[in-house]
Amino acid sequence: MESKNVVLGVLGGLAAGAVLGVLFAPDKGSKTRKKIAKKSSDLKNNVKDSFDSFLSSVEEQYQILTSKAEETVEKGK
């Protein structure tokens, strides 16, 4: 679970940095809003990709453990 917390912390830090960078940039309000919308969309896509990757990893590990357990049961018979 620690690696999950680290990933969430890094993503949160990146999001906060991106938003603060956009907010303090000397642009018009309309441009700033567009930048924030684009950054949040990019962040959402990155989080979704990271989560999908994490789920794939968990599913792969589950399949490996299941197959090893089945092999152990068969050897035990």
What report would you give on this structure?
With 77 residues, this protein is mostly helical. It has one domain (2-76). It contains two helices and no strands. The chain has helices at residues 2-23, 29-76. Helix 1 runs antiparallel to helix 2. It is rod-shaped. It starts with a helix and ends with a helix. The mean pLDDT is 82.
Outline of the structure:
The protein is mainly alpha-helical and 77 residues long. The protein contains 2 helices and no strands.
List the defining traits of the structure above.
mainly alpha, 91% helix, single chain, 2 helices, 77 residues, rod-shaped
Order of helical and strand elements: HH
Round the Cα radius of gyration to an integer and report it: 21 Å
Supply the helix-strand structural class: mainly alpha
Q: What characteristic shape results from the CA principal axes?
A: rod-shaped
Mean pLDDT equals 82
- State the total count of DSSP E strands: 0
| Helix run count | 2
Task: Give the uncertain stretches in residue-range form.
Answer: none
Strand content: under 5%
Largest sheet: none
Fraction of helical residues:
over 70%
Domain module count: 1
What is the CA-CA span between the terminal residues? 35 Å
What's the arrangement of secondary structure elements?
Elements: H1 2-23, H2 29-76
